[in-house]
Structure formats: C-alpha cells, structure tokens
C-alpha cells in the first residue's frame, strides 16, 4: 500500500509540474507586461492563495518554527552535555581513584548539564548513605543499582524531550501540504468549469496553489525527519555512556567495600 501511494503521488506530482510548465510557457507567449503580471513567483502565488491554502500555509509555518526551536534547543542541550562530560570524566575518575567520595560528589554538583555527572552523583549519594556499614550487603549494592537506574531513566527522558514533536511534524507535514494540494486541484477544475475556454490559464492558479502547499509541506517535513534521526542516535549514544558509567561505578563500590572488609 505504501509503495502504491508513493507511486501515485509521484505520478500526480509530475502531472502538476507538467501543467505548471505549460502554463508558464503560455504566459510567456504574451507581451512583456502580461508576462510580468502572470509571473509564477512565490509572492504572486501567496497573493492569490485561497483561504484553505492560506490556512495550510500558516499551519505549516507554525510547525516549521516549532521544529526549528526544538532543533536549536536540543542541539545546545546535547552539546553542553557532551562538553561537560568530557571535563567531568577525568576529574571524577581521579577523585575516585584516591577514594575521595566527597570530592567526587562536589565535582558532580558542578557539572549539572552532564549526563554522566547526574548518574555518578546519584550512585555516590546512595553509596555514601551506606558507607558507615561494617559489612558488605547485597541490599546495599541493589539500592545503588536502583538509584543509578532511576537517574538513567530520568536523564534519558530529559534527552528525548521534544523529539516526539519532531517525529510528529516529520510524519504529518506532508499530509497537511497534501490537504492544500487537494483543494488547489479542486479550485483548478472549478476554474476550468467556470471559464469560457478550457485553456491551461484557467487551471494555472489552482495548480500553482497545489504545488506550493505540497512543496512547503515537504520542506517542513524533511529537515524534521533528518534531525529526529540524528538526535535519536545521539540519545542512544548518551544512554550507552550512562550505562557504562553505572556499571563501572558498581564495580568501584564492590572493590571499595571489599577492601574495607579485609583485616
């Protein structure tokens, strides 16, 4: 079904382009003044859009602005997380190597935009709460694991915030443009019906309206889909980094408590 719809949509789009070219050639055959008046420019098409097509354009522009805002905000968030994590990792590793838990927690507090810092801080806080216990306990390790899992889940949800909006825009913008396309074709055939002659000029306005809304819908959808896939891969990478950090922290807890139990 998807292949058939794609095939039909491609054929229909090619037919509209053919009609548009024919209309442009017919308009070019007249005088210079007529050619200027009937020029197929974005400005001229916007001036002659019907109310349905104009509503579609406004909706698509709102979707475009919203998607751009998400793209910029997510890009800045991911870049800050990556930069702070690069600064945080060697410092906290050195502090833990010297068994300075409080210093490691303080370092984590100073890198609040880092996903690694949030995970490490959560685990260290839970470990410090049981640090005074004289014997190693499986319950303590499990409590630390649960704290790390909660931190990873919270940070992952934060990283994915807004991505569903990009996915929605990427999947629905072409259909919003197609809605305007349908009404443009209806107007084209209505103009042909009302015109005394069945020339291409009678349908040129409706065809241009249909093509404009289709192109705008694709222009809004394609960047949203690209950026959604790119950001999703970035989030997956962050999740792997947090899982690895949580696993290494649990190993550190086990080694640290084992050393405490040795006589």
Structural features, described:
Helix 4 runs antiparallel to helix 8 (163-194) and helix 8 packs antiparallel against helix 9. This protein starts with a helix and ends with a helix. It is rod-shaped. It has one domain. By secondary structure, it is mainly α. It contains nine helices and no strands.
SSE diagram, text form:
Elements: H1 2-28, H2 32-37, H3 42-47, H4 51-97, H5 101-109, H6 115-129, H7 138-160, H8 163-194, H9 201-261
Helix pairs in contact: 1-9, 4-5, 4-8, 4-9, 5-6, 6-7, 6-9, 7-9, 8-9
Keyphrases for this structure?
about 260 residues, mainly alpha, about 85% helix, rod-shaped, disordered N terminus
Count of helical segments? 9
Computed Rg: 30 Å
Number of domains: 1
Strand content: under 5%
The residue fraction in helices comes out at: over 70%
Overall pLDDT metric: 76
Main sheet, how many strands, which sense, barrel? none
Order of helices and strands: HHHHHHHHH
- The rough form would be described as rod-shaped
**Classification by helices and strands:** mainly alpha
- Please tally the β strands and state the result: 0
- How far apart the termini lie comes to 72 Å
Q: Which blocks of ≥5 consecutive residues have pLDDT under 50?
A: 1-20, 26-38
